[in-house]
Amino acid sequence: MRVLGIESSCDETGVALVQARDGEPVPALLGHALYSQIAMHQAYGGVVPELASRDHIRRVLPLTRSVLDQAGAQLADLDVIAYTRGPGLAGALLVGAGVACALGAALGKPVLGIHHLEGHLLSPFLSADPPEFPFVALLVSGGHTQLMRVDGVGRYELLGETIDDAAGEAFDKSAKLLGLGYPGGPALSRLAEQGDEAAFKLPRPLLHSGDLDFSFAGLKTAVLTQVRKLGAVLDDPASPARADLAASTQAAIVDVLLRKSMAALKQTGLRRLVVAGGVGANRRLREQLDAACQRAGVRVHYPELELCTDNGAMIALAGAMRLQAGVQAPSVDYAFDVKPRWPLDEAMRAAA
């Protein structure tokens, strides 16, 4: 079974092809291609939804041809076409959904709408060190920060989530306060490598709340307070205080993610942790989690770095794994809708 995946939820256009074979628990990745719109949105300091949608239209078919060429396949070889149904930017999602359903109708092949976060959640299965069920998942993608117990495909229990800003938003908003470019999170992380993470005492919200929820809005406010105190000092790009504040901000975010993840492992009794989503590429987070999990005798798994960002491979994979597990059937009804706001637990109930 060959599944083509199309991802267009925000500012990356991703297309990939996977093949699921009987007796093999994880589908094989046959080819994938990704186009990032970062350069286009940099001039505006963030994603412009209308521009994102128009660029997806330009990119998706050339990327599809590229993927098929990589895999030595033809459109007629496809068995199912999966696409991101939500959450994300409505216009951007409509591009991927429309192309997927048009291809399905033209080829007489079924289509499958996939939850963007489930794609991230399952993406470590494409790594060189894939996990095994069950595990605790730390999902840190864009506007989402969640801890979940994962017992199998489609079997997810929410353990905790952010009540306001997500970790990715804390990175991006703090970077903007420091005058860093878009995308802010990676820029802040690079600057943090030059700074002293103990230079500023920043809060760790909800660290001792007794539950597994997150909150990063207060941290953003604390960074704003420090920026105002430092004033013109931060106007100098080479200012040590600038790097120190970036390092202290990163340390606060990483500390909360680390300690909540370890608490989730203790609460569930599970011995395996999966980290997925864009923030999962953060080097400091990986270093801290690797060390803590080694001390605790816990296995930790990550996606390959190139698959931490939004991509078509995770959508194709999630589609193939859902079909293999029998938790969702593809559709030959090519009328489609998208869900810009779509809680993962709601998606799982609908598929049950």
Automatic annotation (TrEMBL):
Q: Name one GO cellular component term.
A: cytoplasm
Location of this chain's protein in the cell: Cytoplasm
Query: According to its UniProt record, where is this protein mainly located?
Result: cytoplasm
List, for all copies, the residue spans of the domain called Gcp-like.
29-316
Biological-process GO terms, alphabetical: tRNA threonylcarbamoyladenosine modification
User: Is Transmembrane one of the keywords UniProt gives this record?
Assistant: no
Keyword line: Acyltransferase, Cytoplasm, Iron, Metal-binding, Transferase, tRNA processing
The record describes how the cofactor is bound as: Binds 1 Fe(2+) ion per subunit.
Cofactor(s) for this protein?
A: Fe(2+)
EC number annotated for this UniProt entry: 2.3.1.234
For substrate, which residues are the binding ones?
A: 139-143, 172, 185, 282
Q: Name one Pfam family in it.
A: TsaD
Query: What is this enzyme's catalytic activity, as reactions?
Result: L-threonylcarbamoyladenylate + adenosine(37) in tRNA = N(6)-L-threonylcarbamoyladenosine(37) in tRNA + AMP + H(+)
Q: Which GO terms describe its molecular function?
A: iron ion binding; tRNA N(6)-L-threonylcarbamoyladenine synthase activity
| Superkingdom as given in the UniProt entry | Bacteria
Q: Which family does it belong to?
A: Belongs to the KAE1 / TsaD family.
State the protein's purpose.
Answer: Required for the formation of a threonylcarbamoyl group on adenosine at position 37 (t(6)A37) in tRNAs that read codons beginning with adenine. Is involved in the transfer of the threonylcarbamoyl moiety of threonylcarbamoyl-AMP (TC-AMP) to the N6 group of A37, together with TsaE and TsaB. TsaD likely plays a direct catalytic role in this reaction.
The name on file for this protein is tRNA N6-adenosine threonylcarbamoyltransferase
